Amino acid sequence: GQALAEGALAELRNAEPGSEHQLAWARFFASVASAPADLELLKGLLDGTERIEGLDVDQELRWAFLEPLAAHGVADEARLAEELARDDTASGKRHQVRCLAARPSAEVKARAWHDVVESDALSNALVEATIAGFARPSQRELLAPYAEKYFAVIERVWAERSIQIAMDVVQGLFPALQASPATLEATDAWLSAHESAPPALRRLVLEARDDLARALRGQECDARA
Prior knowledge:
Blueprint: H1 2-14, H2 20-32, H3 36-47, H4 59-71, H5 77-86, H6 90-102, H7 106-118, H8 124-134, H9 140-143, H10 146-160, H11 163-172, H12 181-193, H13 199-224
Helix pairs in contact: 1-2, 2-4, 3-4, 4-6, 5-6, 6-8, 7-8, 8-11, 10-11, 12-13
């Protein structure tokens, strides 16, 4: 991960100032940043103490920088509320909700899960934002307990919620980050125990299963290389 971030930062610094290319590298760098120095740079770009020539840190980019800061425990709830006050729009609210769910604590993950799975208070857009923040690759261990919970709730979610939210939950909360044979076995166990589940629900779980099986085969090839 760190080599990827270093490469992205080098490309960002070399990109033509003010170009689409530069903006794309800025977004990619933010998506892979995790080392303290990289997070410091993002923080500096947000508060204006750091500059990269030609890079316009507009509101969309500010949120893109805040998400990794939230996910690594650098930007807290108060900081995210402050940003929402700057960008008090429907889009700002979605970004804030995603960043809140990205924070690295068991309590945050439990609340996000509850808000999406147990409650129907959130709009479609905010369900989607919460799920996007919940599943952070850097938080595999924190998310491990939810693999089992996922298989216990998806049938009920499918029956009770709107089709859009049910699809978001089934696709977005599938425990893809727990890329292990045990997750594949749990998926197969669910599929064989739920042969009469709605075909659309089974199809989504089957697609996620195939992606997981592919990822595991890729891991095996890497291990042998």
